Amino acid sequence: MMKHIFVATDGSPTAHKAVEFAAEIAAKFGSELTIGHVLHRDSDIDEMAHMAEAEHLVEHAARKSQREFDVPPASMGSLFADIQSGAETARLITVIGDEILARAERRATDIGAKSVHKHSANGKPANAILDMAQEAGADMIVLGHRGLGRVRSLIQGSVSQKVNLHADCTVVSVR
């Protein structure tokens, strides 16, 4: 029986399926569930735009940014367009990550998971996922087979492949 499940989410549709799958297992077996997100600090704006626009996070990030907009931003690119400060960029990335985690937590509890924790981290996605899972004491890692990574990840190896290769516990890749 799985006592602690770690699920990674990047806000993609496949990650949503992974959260739902992990929450169903946690609910069925009374397992603890930790939902993790790797902050996209090194991602390019196109990758982040796909994440945010897919989940309508632009509006949420714009509200939380406390910036004045003449016209509400329609895309992630326009949200970040006039930012001069690295600190402000980092804060917006954190706001988006927090919202991804909050939405995943709501979905997991709606499904029936009782003990749900959230955690975000910086770093390379596969390494950060492995570290967060280990810190949580997870005996299972659940993640989407294909997230938001760019085409180059196919050449270098995907996050799910790297996690599967290096994890010390069961890894479930959801399609």
Strand % is 15-25%
Spatially, the strands of the biggest sheet line up as 3-2-1-4-5
Mean pLDDT score, rounded?
Answer: 80
CATH topology descriptor: Rossmann fold
Helix content: 40-55%
H-E string = EHEHHHHEHEHHE
> What is the CATH class designation?
Alpha Beta
Q: State the fourth-level CATH superfamily.
A: HUPs
- Rg (CA only): 16 Å
Termini separation: 23 Å
Query: How many alpha or pi helices?
Result: 8
Low-confidence region ranges: 150-157
Judging by the overall fold, what is the CATH architecture?
Answer: 3-Layer(aba) Sandwich
Dominant shape: globular
What's the number of structural domains?
1
Using DSSP, what is the number of strands?
A: 5
Largest beta-sheet characterization: 5 strands, parallel
The secondary-structure class comes to alpha/beta
Features:
Rossmann fold; single chain; globular; alpha/beta; 175 residues; five-stranded parallel sheet
Description:
- This protein has 8 helices and 5 strands; from the N terminus they run βαβααααβαβααβ.
- Helix 1 (13-29) crosses helix 5 and helix 6 packs across helix 8.
- It is of the alpha/beta class and 175 residues long.
- A 5-stranded parallel sheet has the order 3-2-1-4-5, with helices on both faces.
- The protein is globular and about 45 Å long.
- It has a single domain (4-174), classed as Rossmann fold, CATH 3.40.50.620.
- The longest helix has 26 residues, at 86-111.
- The model is unreliable at 150-157 (pLDDT under 50).
Set down the secondary structure blueprint.
Blueprint: E1 4-8, H1 13-29, E2 32-38, H2 45-54, H3 57-65, H4 76-80, H5 86-111, E3 115-121, H6 125-136, E4 140-144, H7 152-156, H8 159-166, E5 170-174
Parallel strand pairs: 1-2, 1-4, 2-3, 4-5
Helix pairs in contact: 1-5, 3-5, 6-8
